[in-house]
Fold each of these.
Amino acid sequence: MHELTVHADLLSIRDIGPWLREVAGDAVAADALESFAMKCELAVQELAVNIVTHGYDGEPGPDDHITLVGTIVDGAVQIVITDGAKEYRPDEQAAPAADEPQVHGYGLMIVRQLTRRFDHERVDSVNTTTLEFPLPGGQP
């Protein structure tokens, strides 16, 4: 199990990429690690940016943070993200219309396309999002 806690600001979330490579490195062959980690990073950073910009309205307090826990489960890298930002409901967000270009709104669609599992729940004042990325080539 690997854990990372970052301050809920856009500058701090850049620490997520190297951490994801560490998590995935436990189960992914070296020749596949970079492309696999980039896929994971894209999805996780999309969510982290949403947490900062929408959940904390781009103005997190000094004690606001995002915690990530990474494990290998059932042939996948599982990332559990928790935060204390305001509630959001990803299942209620409309997918972007294919024939209407827009600037925002593609993040959750990207996350859904890159994961085999994307669950979200809110308990008390904590958002918990679980993502699973299948390991390449059926690795354990």
Amino acid sequence: MAGEGIAGAVAVATHREFPRAKVWCDGAMVVVAIILALFGLHGLVGVREGTILSALITGRLVSAYTRWWPQLVTWIQA
């Protein structure tokens, strides 16, 4: 997925861990979506609570399962 690739590239370029970079990238994409919706559609069309919550929670879930299941992370990266 493109969003995962951006977060991965930011994590590598800034020497940060992936879950932290994912939260920042997802948050930035939500902010851009809000700005585009406000200027282009004159309202918050398509950006609601679920979008904001998923941007904030997904990186934390990735952090949790990388801590709990390191074998899964090794399998995914292989």
Amino acid sequence: MERLQLKVTIDRPVGYQDDFGNIYPINYGYIAGVIAGDGEEQDAYVLSTSDEPLNEFTGYLVAIIRRKDDVEDKWVVAEANQSYSAQEIYQAVEFLEKYFDSEVELVK
């Protein structure tokens, strides 16, 4: 998959606490109109140089989190001028991915 420019609608901003007690250190949301494996809109982690809670974010697809034990993958969207290693991405999303057998696939 090539690097796509995407708009993420943030529904779990930095500081959000979910029903399981996880506190989100990064913004998290979905790509409107793109349907994932679970039949819902595609979820996306947002990696940004800002740590402020956002309502929306436009950036580029830099990685896909492949979950081997789930029906859906997660996308990682970042600013155009930023690049991350697979290890850096995993460290940023580990707060949720630690519950899954997942791996980071970088998008070139």
Amino acid sequence: MLTLYPVSISRIPADFGRMEELLDLIMRAFAYMDGVIDPPSSAHRLTVENLREKCAAEIAFVALEGERLVGCVFLAERTDHFYLGKLAVDPSYQGRGTGRLLLKAAEEAAVAGGKPRIELQTRVELTANQTAFAQMGFVETGRSAHAGFDRPTSITMRKALA
């Protein structure tokens, strides 16, 4: 468990009973993207049930302040890396280092899992996210388009791990 008073980071257990809260957190954290990115965020396709399945299939971490759920992140194993997704921090906790703590936990899990890098995607329109990830050691490795789009909609970024 990682702790930055008063926020602690721990792995989401298989019997996590707070899926509704987790879904609400993700939706609040991603709400600022509505009307900014096209197509809309895949967060809109999340349900309690498929979030439960995501937690079972991936490595997932939660950030808590006491009992308050304030952040989460997911890692999906790929052939040569882990894919980092749904890094979400409660809007009232952003800018306090919670995202960095979640990323550190994800990096430690990736190294423990034998993968030398983490990959993520962020949207072309979200330049502040691109800058923040670059400041945390990620570099752009490509751009891609969602189905039906003739322009890049996503930027792929990778971070090599020690």
